[in-house]
Design a protein that fits this description.
AlkB-like_sf, binds fe (iii) ion, mainly beta, broad specificity oxidative DNA demethylase activity, binds N-(carboxycarbonyl)-S-(naphthalen-2-ylmethyl)-L-cysteine, Jelly Rolls, seven-stranded antiparallel β-sheet
């Protein structure tokens, strides 16, 4: 069912369960053309989460900052096109949450291995905060940390399982959030990994 989290934020439990096998095949295809890599933060730290992208733009980070780029710096080519299955799923989830005209131009693909985590942050490198972000979880389970509008607001913890989809619009769009350190395990589809897709309207 639909579970409201905050103003404009919902988790759709199991919304993508029928599609996880196809989504995983699409991720492997994307990664064969734009490989997963551990990027460097502006502060000089190596991200424990490995990332790649598909769509018109990809999110990247290096010593010069966080930003979106149309060219993958690892291949000097465009990012792989967004699969139609990705776009259809993201639009169907956004519709359910009350955002009927969602046209994402980027899908950031995160890959977590045991020990990887994502510290509390805001997603604010996009030009248009009126558009939601749609996220899809695949593979090993994780604990999602959902804070408030300020970094020091207490974060609530939510389990995220394979096939769960979340839509972050309205006030929740700029809330601080992160992912706790991934525990070890073996998923029947993805083996030792958790993947997360985030669909974004970049500009
Ligand atoms: C709440 N990814 O890629 S998805 C990210 O599981 C990111 O890999 C996490 O945060 C992951 O930036 C969390 C859930 C999520 C995504 C975007 C949000 C929650 C959000 C944007 C605003 C508020
Ligand atoms: Fe985020």
């Amino acid at each position: 069912g639909i579970m409201p989290l905050a103003e404009g934020g919902v988790i759709l439990r199991g919304f993508a369960l029928d599609e996880v096998t196809g989504l995983f095949a699409d991720i492997l295809d994307i990664a064969s053309r734009s490989p997963f890599r551990h990027m460097t933060t502006p502060g000089g730290y190596r991200m424990s989460v490995a990332i790649t992208n598909c769509g018109d733009y990809g999110w990247i980070t290096d010593r010069r900052g966080y930003r979106y780029e149309a060219i993958d710096p690892a291949t000097s080519k465009s990012w792989p096109a967004m699969p139609s299955s990705f776009l259809a799923l993201a639009q169907r989830a956004a519709d359910m949450a009350g955002f009927p005209d969602f046209w994402p131009t980027c899908c950031l693909v995160n890959r977590y291995e045991p020990g990887a985590k994502l510290s509390l942050h805001q997603d604010k490198d996009e030009a248009d905060f009126a558009a939601p972000i749609v996220s899809v979880s695949l593979g090993l389970p994780a604990t999602f940390l959902f804070g408030g509008a300020r970094r020091n607001d207490k974060a609530r913890r939510f389990p995220l399982n394979s096939g769960d989809v979340a839509v972050w619009g309205g006030a929740s769009r700029l809330h601080f959030h992160g992912v706790d350190t991934l525990a070890g395990g073996t998923d029947s589809l993805t083996g030792p990994y958790r993947f997360n897709l985030t669909f974004r309207k970049v500009r």
